[in-house]
Amino acid sequence: MQQCQLEYEDNSTTQLININDLANPFTNDFRSISKSNFHLMCEQYLPLIIDHVSSLCLSNGEETPELSEHLIHYCLTIDEFIHLRSLLLEKIDSADTILNITSDFFYLSYLTHLKIIKCHFTYGKSPQQLIIDIWRLINLTHCTLDITFEPILTFIGLPIISKELNHLLRSTPSLQHLCITFGQSIDTKLDRVFPIPLITTLKLDFNGSLLALTSILQNMPNLLHLKLETETINLNGNQWKQILIDYVPKIKIFRFLMKVFSFRHNYTEEQLEDFLDTFRTPFWLDEHQWFIRCNWPQHINKNQWSKTTCPTARDYNSYDRMLPEHSSLNIEIS
């Protein structure tokens, strides 16, 4: 289906009149339309194509003041744009105006992209309703909010308040990308993770147990991209391989930084090579082409870590003290 984009400028009336194929989706950008052309559009043309509009831009800037209110004057409200996929609200300084628009979000079942930018939420209005309205957009994938809440910083109260991962997952069944930090105390809450089959990208800063990590991964069977940083899980290449095969068999990109603090000072280079050899198997090098680098303090009297494998822009890592009983080892894959 061909898409028609209408840029309404002062000379756009003739262009609009010549458009007679209403089977095409329309992109309507009213940010620089003249008042006379806007009224003509609302009176004669927009009612005919309103259910074919896929993208709408409304601005209350200097060139188009009170534009959204004029739509209401012609009995044209957001809920009538039933096939709208993208909506931009710009330079709207009235909380009532914004909420009048967002209150109809329930009817926009096709909306995937929302931008509310350069707007002001006036004093005395709680932004909580705005968040609730946005949350009703079940197919929303991209959301940009650039809103000034005046005159003081306002904390938004969410209808669901919980520290548990399962509450988040149950409330967002269409979640595809997740970036989250876990501390050690999270273990007791991850024994039964809610299945999230649509997740494809996961970024974890994880300091829990191996059991907690596997509980998360086994409920993400379609995971494609995994980025992990941990100081509590020390596994060799064979152990990581088995976890990936068992829990996330579709994985395509795997990047991790594993900080190991369990090696004694008498940990020899031969032992380290044996450890690194577990990441040099066909699974890592041939099948996935995943390569690791290792940083560790070879010279305990120098405030410097040496770089060993996989060139990187960082020439060295510095630290401010030595651990008296343990040396630390960083294993990173990219």
What's the overall geometry? elongated
Strand content: 15-25%
Question: What is the count of distinct domains?
Answer: 2
Mind describing the biggest β-sheet?
7 strands, mixed
Which SSEs are present, and which pair or pack?
Blueprint: E1 4-7, H1 13-17, E2 26-29, H2 35-49, E3 53-59, H3 67-73, E4 86-90, H4 95-102, E5 113-121, H5 128-135, E6 142-149, H6 165-171, E7 177-182, E8 201-206, H7 210-217, E9 225-230, H8 237-247, E10 253-264, H9 269-277, H10 282-287, E11 292-296, E12 306-307, E13 326-333
Parallel strand pairs: 1-2, 2-3, 3-4, 4-5, 5-6, 7-8, 8-9, 9-10
Antiparallel strand pairs: 10-13, 11-12, 11-13
Brief overview:
The chain contains ten helices and 13 strands.
3D structure, described in words:
The protein contains 10 helices and 13 strands. The chain folds into 2 domains: 4-149, Ribonuclease Inhibitor (Leucine-rich repeat, LRR (right-handed beta-alpha superhelix), Alpha-Beta Horseshoe), CATH 3.80.10.10; 165-333. The longest helix is centred in the first third of the chain and has 15 residues, at 35-49. Helix 4 links the parallel strand 4 (86-90) and strand 5. It has helices at 13-17, 35-49, 67-73, 95-102, 128-135, 165-171, 210-217, 237-247, 269-277, 282-287; strands at 4-7, 26-29, 53-59, 86-90, 113-121, 142-149, 177-182, 201-206, 225-230, 253-264, 292-296, 306-307, 326-333. It is 25% helix and 25% strand. It has a 7-stranded mixed sheet with strand order 7-8-9-10-13-11-12, with no helix packed on it. The protein is elongated, with a radius of gyration of 28 Å. Residues 1-24 and 299-328 have low confidence and may be disordered. It has 334 residues and is α/β, with parallel strands linked by helices.
